[in-house]
């Protein structure tokens, strides 16, 4: 009779956060980490998390305890036998509105596990658009509580009572706030020290200085008759840096007039100046 080999002993150390097909169970079993940036998500779809946040560098940082994720199923705080979370709009109209009392119960439980300084953000198409400045502010704090909208949205009284900040992924409407929440978390967590490993990659990317990022190239030097710009192969660091700055300015001016005007105002530049920018 064959004897099954013994399983290797587990390594000692921090308990790993493992991804599974039931992430809400995983997260509920994970003890709170002290002094770690925390993302809380109140949602009707807790199974959507960690989702893409459990992959690549962000997922590895989650496993290593550089940040932590807490999800709260809004349905658990619902009313009655069927755990209702919504009702018809006051004054009539289509769709359903999330009740303020239900949301208040969920927020009460969530906020007991996070710093009171962490903002509460409601993902809404009518909010301020996400930008790099917002992500930097969030990354410098203790964490954030994210409220994912559904249906026709959340009762305004809950938004007012908790001082929620309304934030939008862009000028379009989605079926819920879950994708926007994941985008916000990803964009913020990558700014936390040690998550990406190379801080220089953050310093030189789009929006880091108010400009879009310059073009990027890698091997081979020639591909389908297209060459890497000669200056990038010169080894002359000052010229390379000047070329990249020119490219960043040109791309921003061509593609994002709003960013270009803001950058020029901050640097005492005329946004309408006809500056010669090199393409070489």
Describe the structure.
The protein has helices at 23-29, 56-63, 100-111, 132-139, 156-161, 178-189, 199-203, 237-255, 257-266; strands at residues 37-43, 67-73, 86-87, 97-98, 120-129, 143-148, 165-168, 222-223, 226-227. By secondary structure, the chain is of the alpha/beta class. The protein folds into two domains: 23-189, 3-Layer(aba) Sandwich (Alpha/beta knot), CATH 3.40.1280.10; 204-266, Orthogonal Bundle (Trp Operon Repressor, Chain A), CATH 1.10.1270. A five-stranded parallel sheet has the order 2-1-6-5-7, sandwiched between helices. Strands 3-4 form a two-stranded antiparallel ribbon. The chain has a two-stranded antiparallel ribbon with strand order 8-9. The relative contact order is 0.11.
